[in-house]
C-alpha cells in the first residue's frame, strides 16, 4: 500500500492544505495585475503568494516559496515525522521551460526538527505537471528498498519574466489579445509518501499511469489524446477499477481549450459504461497554472475532500499534462 499525506501547502489563496482547498472549494480566486507586461505592453494578470514581495524574482522567489512551505508545517506533524531518515524528491519545471532553477538551494533549508536536507539523499525530477506522479513512482521504489518514508516537494512559479515571455511568444498566455491561454500562478506543496499512515489525514494511491503525447500544444499534429488516455487506462488497470466507478476527477487544466479537449477525450476513450455525473475540479480556476506544483496540489485537494467528507464518492482520478513537451500521467486515489 502507498499512502500520501500532504503536510504543507503554500498557494496564492492559503498557507496550508486546509485553507487552500477550502478557498478553492468556495471558488475564491486570487488574480491581480502583476508587475509584468505582455508583448503589446498590457499588464499580465496572475495569482501570486502575498507573503513574497513582487520585487523578489527568479531564484529568490523559488527559494522563498521553499522556505515558506517548510515554515508552515503544523508543529504536531513536524514533531512526529523522522525528517533526517526520509529521502527528498524535488519536482520542478521541465528543463526546456525558460525560468529560474533551484540548483544549490538545499544547503539553506531546514526541516522542523532542525536537520538540514541531505543532498546525497535527494532526487530531482524536472517534468513539470507530471513531476508529482513520477515522484510517487520513485517513492514506491525507495520504500521497497527500505526507506521508512519519502518526502515529495513540488515547487514552481510562472511569475518569472523569462517564463511569461516564452508563454506569450507561443500564444499560450492569457492576455488582452489571446483569450485561449493560461493564467500564471505559483505554489509549493510538501507531501509524505509511506507504506502506512503517518499523519491523521491521508489518501491511498491505487493506480499510476504514464504516457507520451506527440500532438502537443505547440505542434501541428492531429490530436487524439493518446498520451493522457493511455496513462488513465494504465492507472485504472492497476487500481482494478473502471472509469465509470470514479466519482470525481481533478485536473491541472489552466484555461487552454486544448487541455479541456484532452481531458474530455481521455475520459470518453476509457468510459465503458455511462455514469450520471463525474465532476472535474480545477485548482487553476482560483490559483492559476502552478506548473510543477499542480500535480501535488491535486493530491492535497483529494485528501482534504475525503477527510472532510465533501468528496462525491470513494474514488478520484487525477491528471497531469505537460502541455508543451508531451508528458502525461494519471493516478487513482481513495480515502
Structure at a glance:
The protein is α/β, with parallel strands linked by helices.
Give a verbal description of the structure.
This protein folds into two domains: 2-194, Peroxisomal Thiolase, Chain A, domain 1, CATH 3.40.47; 203-334, Peroxisomal Thiolase, Chain A, domain 1 (3-Layer(aba) Sandwich). It is globular and about 50 Å long. The two termini are 12 Å apart. Helix 1 (17-26) crosses helix 9. A ten-stranded mixed beta sheet has the order 5-4-6-7-1-8-12-11-9-10, with helices on both faces. The protein is 30% helix and 24% strand. The protein is built from nine helices and twelve strands. It has 335 residues and is of the alpha/beta class.
Notable characteristics:
335 residues; alpha/beta; Peroxisomal Thiolase, Chain A, domain 1; two-stranded antiparallel sheet; 12 strands
Amino acid at each position: 500500500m502507498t499512502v500520501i499525506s500532504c503536510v504543507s501547502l503554500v498557494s496564492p489563496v492559503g498557507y496550508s492544505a486546509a485553507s487552500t482547498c477550502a478557498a478553492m472549494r468556495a471558488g475564491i480566486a486570487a488574480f491581480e495585475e502583476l508587475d509584468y507586461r505582455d508583448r503589446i505592453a498590457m499588464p499580465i494578470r496572475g495569482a501570486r503568494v502575498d507573503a513574497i514581495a513582487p520585487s523578489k524574482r527568479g531564484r529568490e522567489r523559488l527559494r522563498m516559496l521553499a522556505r515558506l512551505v517548510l515554515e508552515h508545517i503544523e508543529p504536531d506533524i513536524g514533531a512526529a515525522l523522522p525528517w533526517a531518515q526520509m529521502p527528498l524528491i524535488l519536482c520542478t519545471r521541465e528543463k526546456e521551460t525558460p525560468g529560474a532553477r533551484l540548483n544549490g538551494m538545499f544547503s539553506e533549508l531546514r526541516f522542523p526538527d532542525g536537520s538540514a536536507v541531505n543532498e546525497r539523499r535527494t532526487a530531482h525530477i524536472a517534468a513539470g505537471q507530471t513531476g508529482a506522479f513520477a515522484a510517487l513512482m520513485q517513492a514506491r521504489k525507495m520504500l521497497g528498498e527500505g526507506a521508512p518514508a519519502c518526502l515529495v516537494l513540488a515547487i514552481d512559479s510562472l511569475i518569472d519574466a523569462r517564463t511569461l515571455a516564452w508563454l506569450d511568444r507561443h500564444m499560450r498566455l492569457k492576455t488582452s489579445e489571446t483569450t485561449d491561454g493560461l493564467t500564471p500562478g505559483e505554489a509549493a506543496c510538501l507531501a509524505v509518501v509511506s507504506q502506512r499512515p503517518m499523519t491523521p489525514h491521508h489518501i491511498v494511491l491505487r493506480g499510476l499511469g504514464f504516457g507520451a503525447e506527440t500532438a502537443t500544444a505547440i505542434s501541428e499534429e492531429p490530436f487524439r489524446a493518446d498520451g493522457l488516455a493511455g496513462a488513465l487506462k494504465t492507472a485504472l488497470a492497476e487500481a482494478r477499477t473502471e472509469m465509470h466507478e470514479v466519482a470525481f476527477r481533478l485536473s491541472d487544466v489552466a484555461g487552454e481549450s486544448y487541455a479541456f479537449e484532452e481531458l474530455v477525450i481521455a475520459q470518453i476513450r476509457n468510459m465503458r459504461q455511462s455514469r450520471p455525473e463525474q465532476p472535474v475540479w480545477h485548482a487553476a480556476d482560483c490559483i492559476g497554472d502552478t506548473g510543477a506544483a499542480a500535480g501535488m496540489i491535486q493530491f492535497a485537494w483529494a485528501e482534504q475532500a475525503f477527510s472532510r467528507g465533501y468528496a462525491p464518492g470513494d474514488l478520484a482520478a487525477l491528471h497531469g499534462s505537460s502541455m508543451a513537451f508531451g508528458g502525461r500521467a494519471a493516478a487513482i486515489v481513495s480515502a
